[in-house]
Amino acid sequence: MFELGNAIKPKFRAGDTITVYVPTVSKGKTIEKTVTGVCIRVTTSTFTIRMGSDNTSAEVTYSFFTPSRVEVVFFGKVRRARLYYLRDALGKRARIKRDFGRKVHANN
To answer: What is the pTM (predicted TM-score) of this model?
Structure first.
């Protein structure tokens, strides 16, 4: 992942599991809050991730200017650009196959 000005140019797409580091101010200190989830949508200026545990889940939409950095945990193999069907899926239905053909480039 490399930065272009203050915006992050995406190296991920829908179906990838990503970790987003968002700077937050707490008691006068700036700390990075991490959010890990499946990316269900990428547009030109925003991306939406879905994170879930047990029977609860939440979606968060970020602008490419908001997070300090984004890391790809692993790539997913999907056939769609918008994964809205994951909203209704629970358990095994919400799983996404891993794509071992795409590689994470460490030098970017």
So the answer is: 0.79
